[in-house]
Amino acid sequence: MHKIDVFRKEFQQYSSLNNPDAKQVSNFASWLEERGIPLFKEAFQQETNRPIPSLPDEKLIEQAYPKGLNEIDKKQLQQTFYVSNAQIFVQTCSWIASTVVNASSDPRAEVFSSRHFDLLHYLVLDAMVLLDDWAHLTQDVPAMYGIGKNAWHSASQIALATDQLIFSGSPFFAFTDNSTDSGIALLRIALETRMRFGFELLGVVELSTQSVLPLNLSTVFKAIDKHQHKFKLAVPLQHIERIYGWSNIYVHIGLKHFMWSPIFALRYMNRLLRGGEYSKGFSVNAGIEIDKATLLAIQDEAETAYNLDSTKYELSKIPVDQCAVVLTA
Fold this sequence. Notes:
The chain is mainly alpha-helical and 329 residues long. The protein is 58% helix and 7% strand. It has three domains: 3-149, no CATH class; 150-179, no CATH class; 187-327, no CATH class. The chain contains twelve helices and eight strands.
């Protein structure tokens, strides 16, 4: 019997649970920690003839996330796409399972049992989708593992997810189903806000009407790129661009990725988005450490790239000392 069949058979005893209590969810999480995840790693290697690696996070970002629609087909034909996503699944599922097990002794965990269960349940289902995609797209063997997934998020589903966000998942106002995919849109907003307010580049003002016109973020990225050797970013610019481009796929057409993708991307980007410790203490802005001269040079670069007529337009900026950065000089 193939390892994947053993994995699926053992998983089924948990996947069939209806309204599981905290103890049942803890047992499921314990199985994943002690048996399920190690078994999946063996199954993945047996099926693909490739072990799940131990790559650094930077490499996983580069190999597992398409930067745009034009990269999706190319990525899905590469073996590195599948091994990287398998590693991300293992890391993410291990972390969540461990957290659920540790929380099981807390009486508050009972209220969240169904949500913890759904989180782990859908992660495992997507792990099997990953293998199915590998078989179909790289081996020309469709439906090898007998599982499929709706790859599109409809407007009605996104509206329901918005209810969950607004009402904190209260069952009296919204469904409590998992809405991880919708987090991709928020991650995109967080990245765009971080970069615009970090480098003072908010938009373009039309002087005659005082209307604020959009300043394409790709222009901001290009301006930053020419000066990135002069300052410190907590996350490499190329990875910020990649995750931003990847998130645009979902925002523009509702195409979903694997469930672990937004979870891993957010954790990776937290150093930029939430800040932390730096040489002189702690700051929520510590993801960007830069001096005033470089900030002004980046603004000038963006203005030059846009070729603005100064009699008609000007950049919408905020004072340098109010930027969301740690100023070094």
